[in-house]
From TrEMBL:
Keyword terms: DNA-binding, Nucleus, Transcription, Transcription regulation
Alphabetized GO MF terms: DNA-binding transcription factor activity; protein dimerization activity; RNA polymerase II transcription regulatory region sequence-specific DNA binding
Name of one Pfam family that matches: K-box
Annotated organism of origin: Quercus lobata (Valley oak)
Keyword Transmembrane helix: no
Cited InterPro entries: MADS-box/MEF2_TF (IPR050142), MEF2-like_N (IPR033896), TF_Kbox (IPR002487), TF_MADSbox (IPR002100), TF_MADSbox_sf (IPR036879)
Protein name: Uncharacterized protein
Originating gene: LOC115959489
Length: 192
């Protein structure tokens, strides 16, 4: 019984897609192996699945690098040079950014100020004044937060003190009246 032709389009069901990928990958690798054995051809197949998994077939006693080198010789091209040149350009840009940032840091701590023009020193001064303003505002927020915390602790300590004095006064008026320790940590409230 002959199979009918299927329409070549993306399989929507992920399970079916993975099963088809696996079967066709194995078939492709089998054909590559047959081509290697029958024709003494050097074959390399690299596949990356939708899940990011890498599978490859390389003819026995051959490496992918050897095949790529032979491909480059046959086509008289260098597939690595453009990639290498792009990486070199990116490296040079990053080195320039790094050099610029190091110079700016030295200027901000006053080491390379002699190299600056009057206008650049004025800009640097404004930047530093703005930075000091931001730091000062942050410091005041922290201090005010700590002050509020201490005020709350002081109010709580004053309440405890007032209750203790009230208890002592009540004990003096009524000898049967006694203080009961309910397990409160009074030292933590007053900051000991």
């Amino acid at each position: 019984m002959a199979r009918g032709k299927i329409q070549i389009k993306r399989i929507e069901n992920t399970t079916n897609r993975q099963v088809t990928y696996s079967k066709r990958r194995n078939g492709l690798f089998k054909k590559a192996n047959e081509l290697t054995v029958l024709c003494d051809a050097k074959v390399s197949i690299i596949m990356i699945s939708s899940t990011g998994k890498v599978q490859e077939y390389v003819s026995p006693s051959t490496t992918t690098k050897q095949l790529i080198d032979e491909y480059q010789k046959a086509k008289e091209t260098d597939i690595w040079s453009s990639h290498y040149e792009r990486m070199q350009r990116e490296l040079m840009k990053l080195k320039e950014v790094n050099r610029s940032l190091r110079t700016e840091i030295r200027q901000r701590i006053g080491e390379s100020a002699n190299d600056l023009s009057l206008e650049k020193m004025h800009i640097l001064e404004q930047d530093m004044e703005n930075a000091v303003k931001v730091i000062r505002e942050r410091k005041y927020r922290v201090i005010s937060g700590q002050t509020e915390t201490f005020k709350k602790k002081l109010r709580s300590a004053k309440d405890i003190h007032r209750n203790l004095l009230h208890g002592i006064d009540a004990g003096n008026e009524d000898p049967q009246y006694g203080l009961v320790d309910n397990g409160g940590d009074y030292g933590a409230v007053i900051g000991r």
